[in-house]
Amino acid sequence: MKKLLYLTVLPLMLVSCAETEERVIETTTTTETAPVATANMDELNNKFVSAWNTQDSTYLMSIMAEDVEMLMGPNNLSGKEEVVAQWLRPNLNVTRDLEATMIAKGEGPDMAYALGTYSFTREVPNMAAAQQRGNYSFVWEPQADTAWQLVSIHIERMPEEQTQQ
What we know:
The chain is 33% helix and 36% strand. It is an alpha+beta fold.
């Protein structure tokens, strides 16, 4: 009798399981963030040059991300503290008339970059003023507060014989 019960109930259970639909409801959680405006590289570049020429170290430090990376010749500087200590502070007060010419740029909501050339006059006490030129690239990313900050700086100075031409 038990066998007959199993033979009757088991097929009914299999049929009822086969006929039920499995429903999967996908949900996504979104967090509200302020919309990020696409970077304006002309504006960011102009602000950088203006701040450099007025020796506005507060502004220059504010636009560097904490984890900024800088390549300069054979040197690699990692982090805002190191970039400020080894590049910004030693150079800001001895350079005059920075000019930057942007050659290429990319602007998007997640990243922006500028590639170009620069020139300035270096005025070190007790030395003759010297003109320096080179190439630069800046990579910017929006931060949590939507402010754009430098995450990568690459400065490549031209050799002396090329700067005097």
